[in-house]
Design brief:
The chain folds into two domains: 2-102 and 227-241, Nucleotidyltransferase, domain 5 (2-Layer Sandwich), CATH 3.30.420.40; 116-221, Nucleotidyltransferase, domain 5 (2-Layer Sandwich), CATH 3.30.420. Helix content is 32%, strand content 24%. The protein has seven helices and 16 strands. It has helices at 35-48, 83-88, 100-111, 156-160, 162-167, 172-190, 227-241; strands at 2-3, 7-10, 13-14, 19-20, 25-28, 55-59, 63-64, 67-68, 95-99, 120-126, 130-136, 139-141, 150-151, 154-155, 194-198, 218-220. Helix 3 packs across helix 7. The protein is globular. The two termini are 20 Å apart. The structure holds beta-D-glucopyranose (BGC).
C-alpha cells in the first residue's frame, strides 16, 4: 500500500520481479487526510483484494517502529500515531509501515536503476515534497529527510519539488535550474556515487535530467509509479518474516 497526499494505492506484488500482480487500485486520499479516514481507505483497498497476508505500507513522513514522527504534507494528526497498530486493528494481516521514499529506494535498489550498485546511492523522489533514501553499499540508512535541507534560506522541497513546479507554473528548464541548485547544496555535503531521481516527473526525465550539472552521475528511476508499492511489499516481507 502506498499512502500519498493525493492518492492511496495498493496491489499484491511479485517479490521475485517487483512487478504488480494484477491491476493496482487507487482511491483519492480523503480530505482532511486524518489517520482514521486513511485507515478506512486502506481497509477498503485490502478488502478488494481479499488479502490476509502481510502488508507493507508507505507513509510520507518519518516512520520509526510503526509510529509516524512527522507529517509535512498530510494531516498533522498523524504525528505520534502508531500506524502499524491502527491498521492492524482494521485489517486482517500484519503491517509494516515505512517512509515512502525509503520504500521507493528499496525497490529501485532491488529491481530498478540501483541494481547491483555499491557505494553511496541517493534516491530522490520529486512529488508534493522531495523524499530521500540513502544507501551505503546496498544498506538503507532510514528516514533521511533531505527534502528539508536549507537551500538559499528556504526549505529545499518548497523550491524544487514537482509541486513547486506546478505552483509557480515553471517550464522544465526553469524548474531544472531550481533542482540543480538544490542538488548542488546536497551534493556538497554528501558526495554520493549515484543519484536516482523518481516520482511522477521521472516519466519526463528526458526533459530535465540532461539539463542538470551535477558532478554525480544521475539516472531516472525505472519503476516509476509502482516503486513505493513494490518497496513496501519487500520491506514487509523482510521485516515481518524476521
Ligand atoms: C517528507 C518526507 C517524505 C517526502 C516525500 C517530505 O515532505 O518530510 O518524509 O518522504 O515528503 O513524500
Amino acid at each position: 500500500m502506498d499512502i500519498g497526499g493525493s492518492g492511496i494505492k495498493g496491489c499484491p506484488v511479485d517479490l521475485e520481479t517487483g512487478e504488480l500482480i494484477g491491476e493496482r487500485l487507487r482511491i483519492d486520499t480523503p480530505q482532511p487526510s486524518t489517520p482514521e479516514a486513511v485507515f478506512d481507505v486502506v481497509r477498503r483497498v485490502v478488502g478488494e483484494f481479499d488479502w490476509t497476508g502481510p502488508i507493507g505500507v508507505t507513509f510520507p513522513g518519518v516512520m520509526k517502529h510503526g509510529v509516524a514522527y512527522t507529517a509535512a504534507n498530510v494531516d498533522k494528526g498523524w504525528i505520534g500515531t502508531d500506524v502499524d497498530a491502527g491498521l492492524e486493528a482494521v485489517i486482517p494481516g500484519a503491517v509494516h509501515t515505512l517512509n515512502d521514499a525509503d520504500a521507493a529506494g528499496l525497490a529501485e535498489m532491488r529491481y530498478g536503476a540501483g541494481r547491483g550498485r555499491d557505494g553511496v546511492v541517493l534516491m530522490l523522489t520529486f512529488g508534493t515534497g522531495i523524499g530521500s533514501a540513502l544507501f551505503v553499499n546496498g544498506t538503507l540508512v532510514t528516514n533521511t529527510e533531505f527534502g528539508h535541507i536549507q537551500v538559499d534560506g528556504e526549505d529545499g522541497e518548497r523550491r524544487a519539488s514537482a509541486a513547486a513546479k506546478d505552483r509557480h507554473e515553471l517550464s522544465y528548464p526553469e524548474w531544472a535550474e531550481r533542482v540543480d541548485r538544490y542538488l548542488d547544496v546536497l551534493e556538497g555535503s554528501l558526495w554520493p556515487d549515484l543519484i536516482i531521481v523518481g516520482g511522477g516527473v521521472s516519466k519526463k526525465a528526458h526533459k530535465w535530467v540532461p539539463l542538470l550539472s551535477t558532478r554525480t552521475p544521475i539516472v531516472a528511476a525505472e519503476l516509476l509509479n509502482n516503486a513505493g508499492i513494490a518497496g513496501a511489499a519487500l520491506a514487509a516481507h523482510e521485516n515481518l518474516a524476521a
